[in-house]
Design brief:
The complex is a heterodimer of chains A (302) and B (237). Chain A has 302 residues and is mainly alpha-helical. Chain A has eleven helices and four strands. In chain A, α1 packs across α9, α2 runs parallel beside α4 and α2 packs across α9. The longest helix of chain A is centred in the N-terminal third of the chain and has 31 residues. Chain A is globular, with a radius of gyration of 19 Å. Classes of the chains: A mainly alpha (302), B alpha/beta (237).
Chain lengths: 302, 237
């Protein structure tokens, strides 16, 4: 029981990483019906920008401490969000009426460019985050379960961000317009919605969240290299599909489920088998629910 | 000065020359109907006016301003609202959210409440179902929602594309009565219909389109008596 709870906490932590990144895939898919393959690499760039920012700040202040994370987070969010918008503008918008395949290829191209840029600028070696930013201690919870300060930080930040995003998408005028654009571009334009503006907003929010997640993941694991975006990006993409691509609560749920299954598989069977277990379950879910767990909750009839 | 004036309008879909020089006017307060067979260019005319497709030649003037190159979402702000064919409501948004999207261009909360009151007054059924998802409504209710949603922007000109399509005869009658009612409350209407008889009955004037050209026009009552119209569009021998 204690082990199960411990694994669940670890699983939810990993799951919240997947969820934050999955949101970017699912939001872009919602409005453009495009898998933004560059998203994983935007996430990876978040880790690098975070590294540069935190290293510089630690050197400058000659001290660590969690407070340094806040200004760097803002820099990461803003930078990656702007790069996201730039990619949409340069690589996707000109191809808006070119069918489904061309934008996908363009997205893959953007992914390779971002990845190569990271390798060329930062080098191919593993990078290590400055230590001492987050206190290393663990907090004991009921039943002997322990949670690290880092995990508390990760969970608080990601659940807060997800709650804010949910409120934005389901409770505000712009969020509702975003959902309208996901359903029908043409009718949205006839409502007076600036569809290009809404798409740009999605490319601010998705990559912004993804970039921040990149920094948090690197902070959590301590070190990373330029392949981070590929591995995490793929798993987050799978989370989005699992939850029902295009569905925002689905991406959150899918991320959590994948994180938990992986962690339980690693803990109860063996770490070498975690991916086999996780993806076998995933394939089964997709066979029995091809639209994902929350996909198309309402029959779309005309 | 007419509210809407179209001169020599040419629109293409790729290489297909869909509109071949349409001239058309709509005066403030009128119901004008476009009738014609499938592929005559009726829907294309509406889509060109609302900015969904761009004309290659000619001009569209609304309220004295040329709107040929104004983006679709700005044309809505100017007071033209287009209800496209096929009841395209937002299925996974609630009825209320659908209506709020109709009022997207309006910032004044008080004006939105006022428009909502008018729409609920016209379609009490929508008020009953305001918290349901759009996709759960019946066909007739969905058509009410598309029209109600368009009225939320309080347009000066309402473009209606085949509002009676696929509705049961009872509902068709109700929809046409509603269109007349909307017009009586001060909205100018340009109506595209396959159901020429019903359209001519409520319209002040009409244009007959054939393969991208206006072949006949005049007061609706006169066209109803016209030999060619009776044969081709009213199903008489």
């Amino acid at each position: 029981m204690q082990q199960l709870l411990q694994q669940l906490i670890n699983g939810i932590t990993i799951g919240s990483f997947y969820a934050l990144v999955a949101l970017g895939y699912t939001m872009v898919y919602g409005v453009l019906k495009l898998i933004n393959f560059a998203h994983g690499d935007l996430f990876m760039w978040g880790a690098y920008i975070g590294l540069t920012g935190l290293s510089a700040l630690v050197a400058l202040m000659s001290r660590g401490g969690p407070i340094l994370i806040l200004p760097v987070s803002i820099i990461v969010i803003v930078t990656i969000a702007l790069v996201g918008v730039l990619i949409e503008r340069v690589a996707y918008r000109p191809l808006r009426s070119a069918g489904r395949l061309a934008p996908v290829i363009s997205a893959l191209g953007a992914a390779f460019i971002l990845e190569s840029l990271a390798r060329n600028i930062y080098g191919a070696s593993w990078k290590t985050y400055p230590t001492g930013l987050v206190p290393a201690g663990r907090v004991a919870l009921v039943g002997g379960v322990r949670i690290s300060v880092m995990q508390v930080l990760v969970l608080v930040v990601s659940f807060l961000l997800m709650a804010l995003l949910y409120l934005f998408v389901y409770r505000t005028r712009i969020g509702t317009a975003m959902r309208a654009v996901s359903l029908d571009h043409e009718v949205s334009r006839l409502m007076g919605i600036d569809v290009d503006g809404i798409i740009a907003t999605v490319f601010l929010i998705g990559p912004g969240l993804g970039g921040l997640a990149g920094m948090i993941v690197a902070l959590y694991y301590g070190s990373f290299d330029f392949t981070l975006g590929w591995i995490f990006g793929l798993k987050a993409f799978i989370s989005a599909i699992l939850g029902g691509i295009g569905n925002i609560p689905g991406a959150m749920l899918g991320g959590m489920i994948l994180g938990i299954i992986e962690t339980l598989g690693a803990g109860y069977v063996s770490p070498q088998w975690k991916d086999v277990i996780a993806y076998a379950i995933l394939i089964l879910i997709l066979i029995f629910r091809p639209t994902g767990l929350l996909g198309e909750r309402v029959a779309e009839k005309l | 000065m007419p509210l809407l004036r179209i001169e020599n309008l040419h629109t293409y879909y790729g290489h297909v020359h869909a509109l071949k020089g349409i001239d058309l006017e709509v005066e403030e307060g009128e119901i004008v109907t476009l009738i014609g067979a499938n592929g005559a260019g009726k829907s294309t005319t509406l889509r060109t006016i609302s900015g969904l497709v761009r004309p290659r030649e000619g001009r569209i003037e609304f309220g004295g301003q040329v709107i040929n190159h104004v983006p679709a979402h700005k044309i809505v702000q100017m007071g033209v609202c287009h209800v496209p064919e096929g009841r395209r409501i937002f299925t996974t948004l609630t009825v209320m959210e659908n209506l709020m999207m109709g009022a997207y261009t309006i910032k004044d909360e008080e004006a939105i409440r006022e428009n909502l009151r008018r729409v609920f007054d016209l379609f009490p059924r929508l008020a009953e179902r305001k918290n349901q998802l759009g996709g759960t409504l019946s066909g007739g209710e969905q058509q009410m929602l598309t029209i109600g949603r368009a009225l939320m922007s309080r347009p000066r000109l309402l473009l209606l594309d085949e509002p009676s399509l696929g509705l049961a005869p009872m509902l068709v009658k109700a929809i046409f009565e509603t269109i007349r009612e909307i017009n009586a409350r001060g909205t100018t209407i340009l109506l595209v219909e396959q159901n020429a008889r019903a359209a001519l009955k409520i319209a002040h004037r009409a244009y007959v389109l054939e393969t991208g050209r206006v072949v006949l026009s005049g007061p609706a009552q006169e066209l109803m008596r016209d030999e060619r119209v009776r044969k081709a569009y009213l199903g008489e021998r």
